[in-house]
Amino acid sequence: MNDLVKLERASAPGVATILLDRPKVNAIDDAVLDGVLEACAELADDSDIRAVVLTGQGRNFAAGADITSFPGFDRDAALDFSRKFNGAALALETLPQITISAINGYALGGGLELALATDFRIAATDARLGMPEILLGIIPGGGGTQRLSRLAGITMAKDLVYSGRNMDPDEALAARIISSIHEPAELQAAALELASRYASGPASLRIAKRVILEGYHLTLEEAAEIEAQGFADTFTTDDMVNGVASFMEHGPGKATFTGR
Questions:
Q1: Dihedrals φ, ψ of 25, to 5°?
Q2: 217 to 150, 209, 227: CA distances (angstroms)
Q3: 119 in Cβ contact with 146 (< 8 Å)
Q4: Per residue in 146-180, pLDDT tens?
Q5: What span, in angstroms and rounded, lies between the C-alpha atoms of 235 and 244?
Q6: Does the bond joining 24 to the residue before it have cis omega, within 30 degrees of 0?
């Protein structure tokens, strides 16, 4: 793990934090992407961690890619960078844990692209989100055109990508890009509280996440089979045994889960 991306496992029981830490604005370069990939590789097989918070050190989540290297890019270098960025975003998206981005300050371009790869996004009142690449004569290259279209709809994606404008948290909430807004001083606590709720959930959360991701782009018939397999997989977990027994004895919502 390099110094630009820190993996903190003591955030809360069962919760880890991936912290982007590249002053001044956590601009994303190859080294940051390497750090994200390394953090995801460590977390992928860690059954003790059941939820992950992604956030930025200081006043900003991540103000975008580090464009200082772009003047030296030819087409091949740009393609390599985009593929690496997409690999990091996919590694984040496919983590088995439930993932939450806590967006403080600017989440622009590549910063927003990383946030879009998590399950949920919550934002501070001073957050600003956007895809400003078009103002540089380029387009998003870390999955932004695709995830934004799927999340907020193709019209909103076209609006943000074509214009390069920023949106405030109220507009992002209305567009369902984020799920809640918090005062800046309360953002990290809110993210950890949400993560802790998922960290205390059953093993079936991981299965549900896998089923949703795997089935999303399939036909309904194919996706239904993915769900059937996942449903069956939940019956191999200790949490299913405990959850059903608790329901029958005490009613809903009383079970204690181990994540196994």
A1: -125, 20
A2: 11, 14, 13
A3: no
A4: 999 999 999 999 999 999 999 999 999 999 999 99
A5: 10
A6: yes
Q: Which of helix, strand or coil describes residue 131? A: coil
**What average pLDDT does range 32-60 have in this prediction?**
96
User: What residues does each domain of the chain span?
Assistant: 5-199, 204-250
* Catalytic residue ranges: 113, 133
5-199 CATH, one of 3.90.226.10, 3.40.50.300, 2.60.40.10, 3.30.565.10: 3.90.226.10
Fold of 204-250: Lyase 2-enoyl-coa Hydratase; Chain  A, domain 2 (1.10.12)
CA 53/CA 206 separation, integer angstroms: 16
To the nearest whole percent, how much of the chain has pLDDT over 70? 100
pTM over 0.85: yes
